[in-house]
Design a protein that fits this description.
Layout (H helix, E strand, L loop, with lengths): L11 E6 L2 H9 L8 E4 L7 E4 L1 H5 L8 H7 L4 E3 L3 H16 L5 E5 L2 E5 L10 H16 L3 E6 L2 H11 L4 E3 L8 H5 L12 H9 L5 H5 L3 H8 L1 H10 L18 H6 L2 H9 L9 H4 L4 H4 L10 H4 L15
Parallel strand pairs: 2-4, 7-8
Antiparallel strand pairs: 1-6, 1-7, 2-3, 5-6
Helix pairs in contact: 4-5, 10-11
Bound molecules: magnesium ion (MG).
Length: 321
């Protein structure tokens, strides 16, 4: 999968802000730094939407009833969500992402995939690129983002989860520390699309880790699980051909999408033909980072727009490197 010059064929970066809502609250009021901050519904039926790492150490997690959080963390600071502020910070973070890639797919206010074809050769390697993005987000917004870099979406998202908090995990296409070393020890329930029911079924079949699933012939999985079996066989082998679906830069993402949009919807969207990536990958190669912020993912990318790095006049993007 690695090209001869060492550039990955399809580098995908998944960026996920750490404790986003709670972190924005700390930036708004620095006196909250180091304290257990819990954002969520404050009524008796409210639910936690974000908790600082200090609150997590007390056992508070997202989606937990606020009443339970108050019992676990009685000295926590409980705040109602301020979606205007989260939207503002999300747009700032998005501008940083746009400066690294013309193809950014937001999943929610605090998460996005970046298609990095064309960007990796501008850096000394994926680690340098991932750390540069993390540093840029921190410098421009004060927020901490964890990053996973891998050859596809499934692996990149898993990698960013393992990078938390405040980290970077690179899953190389091959070699030591590559896909199998990362993927196979993980529980089978970490495979995208495996819900509680499927996890239970896999467990009954004795398939506990992703490596266990990968060891079963695809035809056997298909017989046992139908189409899902075929999908599991691919993902367990680290194969995921869903493209990063670019969304025009600087478009705000509604707060409600945080709750409504899920990975299933994302997969459905990715499979629609009109969302296939425009332009052959080779046309993206050579896009300079300084030019990227000005490219809109939904516009045809003619060579004139991408060659030369710094092109048209306009706001000069901050030098992130
Ligand atoms: Mg997050």
């Amino acid at each position: 999968m690695t090209k001869p010059d060492g550039v990955w064929a399809t580098p995908v970066l998944h960026a996920d802000l750490d404790a986003f809502y709670a972190s924005v609250e700390v930036i708004k009021d620095p006196a909250l730094r180091g304290k257990p901050v819990i954002v969520g519904g404050t009524s008796s039926r409210g639910v936690v939407t974000s908790a600082s790492y200090e609150a997590r150490r007390a056992g508070v997690t997202s989606a937990m009833p606020t009443s339970r959080a108050r019992r676990l963390c009685p000295h926590g600071i409980y705040l109602p969500p301020d979606f205007d502020a989260y939207g503002r910070y999300s747009r700032q973070v998005r501008e940083v992402f746009d400066s690294f890639s013309p193809v950014v797919e937001p999943l929610s206010l605090d998460e996005a995939f970046l298609d990095l074809r064309g960007a990796t050769r501008l850096w000394s390697g994926p680690e340098a690129l991932g750390e540069a993005l993390r540093a840029a987000v921190r410098r421009e917004t004060g927020l901490v983002v964890s990053v996973g870099l891998a050859p596809n979406k499934f692996l990149a998202k898993l990698a960013s989860r393992h990078a938390k908090p405040d980290g970077l995990v690179v899953v190389a296409p091959d070699g030591p520390g590559g896909i199998e070393a990362f993927l196979h020890p993980l529980p089978a329930s970490d495979i995208w699309g495996v819900g509680d029911r499927t996890a239970e079924l896999l467990d009954r079949l004795g398939l506990r880790t992703i490596g266990d699933v990968a060891a079963v012939p695809a035809a056997t999985l298909q017989r046992a699980l139908g189409n899902l079996g075929t999908q599991l066989a691919k993902l367990a082998a680290g194969v995921d051909s869903r493209p990063v679906v670019g969304d025009p830069p600087r478009k705000s993402v509604g707060a409600e999408e945080t709750f409504e949009r899920d990975l299933v919807a994302e997969a459905e969207i990715a499979q629609q033909p009109q969302h296939q990536p425009q332009g052959a990958p080779s046309r993206r190669v050579g896009v300079a980072v300084g030019c990227m912020a000005r490219l809109r993912a939904d516009q045809p990318r003619g060579p004139a727009a991408v060659v030369g790095g710094r092109g048209r006049a306009g706001r000069d993007p901050a030098p992130f490197w």
